[in-house]
Amino acid sequence: MEIEICWCTITFAVLIFIIGFYYIGYLIKVSMGPKRSFKDLKNKHVVITGGSSGIGKASALEAAKLGANVTIIGRDVQRLKNAVNEIIQKVAPANNQNIQYVALDITSGYDSVEKCFSNIEATLGPIFMLINCAGMCICGVFEDMKADDVKHMMDLNFFGTADPTKYVLSAMKKRNEGRIVFVTTEAALMGIYGYSAYGASKWAVRGLAEAINMEAIGTNVQVTLAFPPDTETPGFEKEELTKPTVTKLISGSGGLWKPDDVGKKIVHDAMAGKLYSTFGSTGKMLEILNCNGISSIWQVLTQCVFMGGLRFIMVFVLTNFYAIVNNDLAEKLISPNVKVEENTCTEEKNKDK
Ligand SMILES: *[C@@H]1O[C@H](CO)[C@@H](O)[C@H](O)[C@H]1NC(C)=O
Fold it and tell me: In which pathway does it act (predicted)?
C-alpha cells in the first residue's frame, strides 16, 4: 500500500515538472521572439573599433574570413594600415569584398562619431555588426590612481562604446537586423582588486548593453556581451606595467588567452545571437552566477540545477582571492615602504575653532 502511494507521488511530481518545463520554454519562446543565427557574413558590413590590434584585429580577421566587408577603426594610421594589409594577406578577400580602415578618435564626441560612421556606411554599406573593442586598462589600488586616468577610462571605455552604439541602433532597428558586440572583461562580472576604475567603466558598458538588449526584444537586433579573461595583446602588455602583484595573481588564475581564439569566439557568438560570450570554466561559472539574460530553456534549467553548487565553489575562489590580498598586506607590514606622515587633521580642526 505504501509503495503504491510513493509511485503515485513520483509520477505526479514528474508530470508537474514536465509541464512546468514546457510552460517555461513556451514563455521564453513567446517573449523573446524568433532568433536568427547566421552561418557566414557574406554581403554584410562589419565595423570594429579598436580594430588595429589585439582582440579587435582578431575579430576583424575572422569577419573577413567569413566574407564580410570590414572597416577597422583606430587612431594610429600606420598601425591601421599594417592591420589591413595583414588581414588582406591572410584572407585573400573575394572581389566584392573590401577591407578598409578609418582613423578616428572614438572619444571625440557624438557629432564626430556620427559624421565618421555615416561616411563609413556610404562606402561599404549599412553596418550589420558593430564590435565595440576600443578600450584601455590602467590598474592600481584606487587611492593611488590619477583622477585623470579614472576619467579617461570612462571616456574611452564607456563613451567610446556608447556613441558608436547610439549611431547604429536606430538604423538597425529600422532594417530589423543587426548585431552589436560589447567587449568588456571578467572584471565586469565581479569587482577585482586593482581594477576599480577599469572595472567600473566596463560595468557601465555592461549596464548599457543589457538594457539595450531588453529594448531590442521583439526585433532582430541582438546584443552580445563578451567577457574575455587575460588575453595576450599589446594592450595587456601595457596593462601589466601598472598592475599590482595581487591583481596579477588573481586575474592570472584564469590563464592567458590568445587573441585569435577570443576574437573568433566573439564573432561566432554574435552570429549565433548569444547574449553572453564567456571563456573557460571561470567565465562560464561567472555567467551562470550572474544569470541576467535568458537564452533558452536549457540555459535556465542548468542554471537552476547548478546554481547552489557553483555558489559553493565560488566561496573557495573568493576566499582564495582574499588570501592573496591578505598575504600581500602581511608582506607590506614586514617590510614597510610607506612613510608615516604626521597627522595634520587635528591642527586644522583647532584652526577652525
Ligand atoms: C562591400 O561593399 C561594396 C560597396 O558598397 C558592395 O558593392 C559589396 O557588395 C560589398 N561586399 C560585401 C561582401 O558585403
Answer: Lipid metabolism; sphingolipid metabolism; Sphingolipid metabolism
